[in-house]
Inverse folding.
C-alpha cells in the first residue's frame, strides 16, 4: 500500500503524505517535552505515527476507512499494547469541548482544508496543552505574525493571547507525495491558557473587518463613536491606527474598556 502514494491519495480528505525523513525527524525533535498523551489527527499511512508511538502514547483519528484498515494492520502490535489507540471517523464528530479526557499535545500533519478550524478548536480545548502542526505556510504566518507584519490579524491575536507561537520549520512541496500546490510550515503553539471568551473573538473580527481601514472606523460597526473615542483617549491610541499596528495586549485593554 505504501508504494504508490499518489494513486492512494484522496483529494477530498487533503491527503498529501509526508515522505521526507529529515522533516519527520525534525518534527519528532521539536515535540514538547511533556508527559502528555499525543493526539494525532490524520495518521494517513502512518509515516509520522510510527515515530510517535516509539516515544509516547498516541490516540490517532483517521477519517478514511481504507487507510484505517491499513493502519489497524500496520500497527496491530502497538494497538494491542495500547501504545496506539486508533479512532476511525471524522475527528470533528468526536470532538466535543475536549478531544480527549486527559491532557494531550496535538502533533500532526493536518488536512489543510480544515486546519484553521482544528487549531481554533485545540486552542479552546482545555485538555490540549500544546500544538505542533504542519499546515499551509500562509496560514502558519497568520497565527505567528507580529504586530506591523502583513499577516498580522485576528488569528495572530487569538493564538498569541493563549500561548507562545512560532514557526519551527518551513517545508517545500517536494517533501510530500503527492506534492501540494502550496508551501507548508510546522507551527508550534505552547499554550499558557485556553482560548479567549467568544466576545473577544467577535470584537477582533470587527476590528479587522477591513484591514486597510483604520481600527477606529472598523469598530464603528459594533460600538458608538463616543464609546470608541473615550476608549482611545484612555489608552492614548491615535485615531489613524490601522488594526495591524496594535499589540495583542492593546487589543485586550481596548476590549476590556469597550465590552
Ligand atoms: N499524517 C500523514 C502524513 O504525514 O503523511 C497524513 C497527513 S494528510 C496531510 C492528512 C490526513 O488527515 C489524511 O490521512 C486524511 O485522510 C486525514 N483527514 C482528513 N480529514 C479528516 C477528518 N475530518 N478527520 C480525521 N482525519 C482526517
Amino acid at each position: 500500500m505504501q508504494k504508490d502514494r499518489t494513486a492512494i491519495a484522496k483529494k477530498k480528505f487533503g491527503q498529501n503524505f509526508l515522505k521526507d525523513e529529515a522533516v519527520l525527524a525534525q518534527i519528532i525533535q521539536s515535540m514538547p517535552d511533556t508527559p502528555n498523551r499525543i493526539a494525532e489527527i490524520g495518521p494517513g499511512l502512518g509515516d509520522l505515527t510510527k515515530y510517535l508511538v516509539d516515544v509516547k502514547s498516541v490516540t490517532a483519528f483517521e477519517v478514511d476507512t481504507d487507510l484505517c484498515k491499513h493502519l489497524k494492520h500496520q500497527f496491530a502490535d502497538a494497538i494491542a499494547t495500547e501504545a496506539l489507540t486508533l479512532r476511525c471517523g471524522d475527528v470533528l464528530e468526536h470532538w466535543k469541548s475536549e478531544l480527549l479526557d486527559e491532557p494531550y499535545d496535538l502533533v500532526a500533519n493536518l488536512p489543510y482544508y480544515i486546519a484553521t478550524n482544528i487549531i481554533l478548536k485545540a486552542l479552546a480545548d482545555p485538555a490540549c496543552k500544546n500544538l505542533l502542526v504542519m499546515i499551509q505556510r500562509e496560514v502558519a504566518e497568520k497565527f505567528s505574525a507580529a504586530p506591523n507584519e502583513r499577516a498580522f490579524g485576528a488569528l495572530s491575536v487569538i493564538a498569541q493571547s493563549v500561548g507562545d507561537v512560532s514557526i519551527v520549520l518551513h517545508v517545500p512541496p517536494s517533501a510530500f507525495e503527492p506534492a501540494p500546490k502550496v508551501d507548508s510550515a510546522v507551527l508550534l503553539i505552547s499554550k499558557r491558557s485556553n482560548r479567549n471568551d467568544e466576545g473577544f473573538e467577535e470584537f477582533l473580527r470587527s476590528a479587522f473587518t477591513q484591514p486597510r481601514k483604520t481600527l477606529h472606523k472598523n469598530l464603528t460597526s459594533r460600538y458608538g463613536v463616543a464609546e470608541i473615542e473615550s476608549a482611545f483617549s484612555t489608552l492614548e491610541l491615535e485615531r489613524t491606527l490601522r488594526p495591524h499596528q496594535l499589540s495583542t495586549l492593546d487589543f485586550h485593554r481596548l476590549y476590556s474598556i469597550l465590552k
About this structure: Residues 13-18, 41-45, 47-48, 61-64, 67, 90-92, 109, 111, 114 surround S-adenosylmethionine (CB under 6 Å).
